[in-house]
Amino acid sequence: MSAAQGALEPHPDLDDLPVYLARAEETRSEHIYALKAKDTPWLTLKVWSSAGQGASHPLYFDAAVVEGVVDLALLQPQAVQSITVLVSPPPAPANPRPEPTRRPTTVFPSPSCPLPESGKLPAGTHTFPFSFQIPATVRIAHEGGDVISPLPPTYSTKGFPAFLEYHLSVAVHRGALRVDSTLSTALIYLPRSRPKPASAQRQRAYTELAEPPGPELDPQGWHALQGVIRGVMFSKVGVEVLCTMHVARPLCYARGSTIPFLLTFSSRDTQAVDLFTQPQSVKLVLEQIVTVGPDALRTKSAMLSPASTNASNTFGRIVSRGKCWALAEEEHKGPEERTLAGEIAVPRDVKPSFTFVRFTLSVSPVPPAAAPAAASCFMLPISGL
């Protein structure tokens, strides 16, 4: 989610069209979990998901239907008040008091299998099918009120102290003064989205296998950022160089794609321009940033000021490094201005951007130390494709 947007609003560069799954992604794999007594399963949870064969955890995309069965094997009649299935997030720094994503689904008793008059299920194996849809949003208590938030993706990264995980559980309730039994497994949830189309001129260039036009010919196809580099060259000459970074629109990128950019350096000191426009001199990275706590819901005006956020609640890691190259000589406007072109890859396994009340995951391209002002206020949403 972009820092410019309301905390729980979709990014304007996300397409409203639904995301369709490829035929291969519609293939369902089976997952089986069980509680055992003397090596014999007596409570079994079986579910089907979009995870690949051999995956340890079920995988569900947005608006997915969770389907499965609960098997209860009894050696003798037992008192069972109800059996429920539930999807819920566990406690985490971002969500200290989690609420279920939906009400528990009661699989017993049901119209097809009512509670016996004796209050006991007879000996034997009882099978209870269930099916329910994962909701797209969840209502959360926040600052004395309630907010409606899009359901965030599963997030857990080694080395990061914050995480968001979901659990699928089945509970056998035996009534007052009796111990309930619960069987639970983690599940992976990944909401999907797609960026809006690129500008018409960029699309035409891609179709014709031509170089996309620059910001002067296609102003709608680029987003501009500026920062000033001040320093000392050769230990004695003070220099000031204006760095302008253009990033291709729309400002939302699919995982596995690339982010095209242009870097323009301009200064009256032509020697400084020559030094800055050596491709090996430019270091541009894509940084994933996690913010936990009140700062996760800062508005854009607050995020523009680095001093407004609590550094102890913000964690970052580099997920990709950009590459750049010099443009043809005829594209330079003169000795006082030079432009480099480049791209930075969005890793296929990077998590999509999202904001979930006290937890924000964003991705930011960090320009040369040249332009700290630009780096501190620009976030790129990564779509869940």
Automatic annotation (TrEMBL):
Highest taxon listed in the record's lineage: Eukaryota
InterPro entries referenced in this protein's UniProt entry, alphabetically: Arrestin-like_C
This protein's name: Arrestin-like N-terminal domain-containing protein
The species this protein was found in: Calocera cornea HHB12733
